[in-house]
Design goal:
The chain is of the alpha+beta class. The protein contains four helices and 16 strands. The strands form two sheets. An eight-stranded mixed beta sheet has the order 2-3-4-1-5-8-7-6, with helices on one face.
Length: 281
């Protein structure tokens, strides 16, 4: 994602208060809900240090073969997300956060995705006894993972300080994207905030549960590829923003408040974009 993110392009961001900080500890994820995120980074040690100090995570390192280590990042003993250092074969790939959607049958869901115009990037493959996964790009080019849980359900703590709070899609074609996610996961879509600058904020729901947001990429943002971005919950967004900057992060979007949600967007020291958010009032 390009740095050309600014306050104007975020003026319509809307985290759902009925989601954020409402049901932190989970033992399963409904099919069609986001269940996991992981970080592909150029420096696993530096990334673990940065996010642990910012969000209170502890790293549990798991060797997975060929010299690769996949770290489970935990808070209070609960799995929050994953983290690994990019290795051979990932040259030219920008470091990034990936978002995963829980599914019952990943093979069947991949077929639905490709039938709906998506492109298979990787898999489906078994991940030891943890589960089965695949990566797909939607018809607009935004990549995401599908996760069929076995021993690993995904995140055990969500919508709580230090945990995942929101997933947001940036795309060049909101109508095509909305139709794709409706066909593949049954998501509905509502336009929650018209943007006086000419855009709109879209909120996806899986049944009655808000699952993410969507915005049209604007020309003034620069070269922003379609992507799913992530936000983590914090107790005090202003303090966390200052802490992140003191740890070497770059402020991309300054502290902003919309509908009792205070948030900011950052680039971590390894160049990965992410957001932080806090419910206020």
């Amino acid at each position: 994602m390009c740095e050309c993110l600014n306050e104007g392009r975020r003026s319509t961001l809307n985290f759902s208060k009925e989601v954020l900080f409402n049901m932190p500890e989970v033992t399963s994820h409904a099919p069609g809900n986001f269940c996991w995120v992981d970080l592909s980074t150029t420096d696993a040690g530096a990334s673990k240090s940065f996010y642990s100090r910012l969000l209170g995570w502890t790293a549990i390192d798991n060797p997975v073969g060929n010299g690769m280590v996949y770290s489970m990042m935990q808070k209070d003993g609960k799995n929050i997300c994953g983290l690994y250092e990019m290795g051979p074969g990932m040259e030219g790939v920008y470091p990034h956060w990936s978002s995963y959607i829980s599914v019952v049958d990943v093979d069947a869901q991949v077929r639905k995705a490709t039938d709906a115009g998506g492109s298979l990037i990787m898999g489906p493959d078994d991940v030891f006894e943890a589960g089965r996964m695949a990566f797909v790009a939607d018809p607009t080019g935004a990549a995401f993972g599908m996760w069929q849980p076995r021993e690993h359900i995904g995140a055990q703590l969500i919508y709580a300080p230090g945990a995942l709070g929101w997933n947001e899609l940036y795309t060049n074609d909101t109508e095509t994207a909305a139709g794709f996610y409706a066909s593949v996961f049954g998501w509905s879509r509502a336009i929650t905030h018209p943007d006086p600058q000419g855009g709109q904020y879209h909120e996806f729901k899986n049944g009655d549960s808000p699952v993410g947001g969507m915005m049209q990429i604007k020309a003034e943002w620069g070269e922003v590829p379609p992507n799913w971005s992530v936000y983590f919950c914090v107790d005090d967004c202003a303090a966390s923003l200052q802490e992140a900057k003191s740890l070497g992060a770059e402020e991309v979007l300054p502290l902003t408040e919309v509908d009792n949600i205070r948030f900011a967007f950052l680039k971590d020291p390894q160049g990965v974009y992410f957001g932080i958010a806090q419910v206020v009032g």
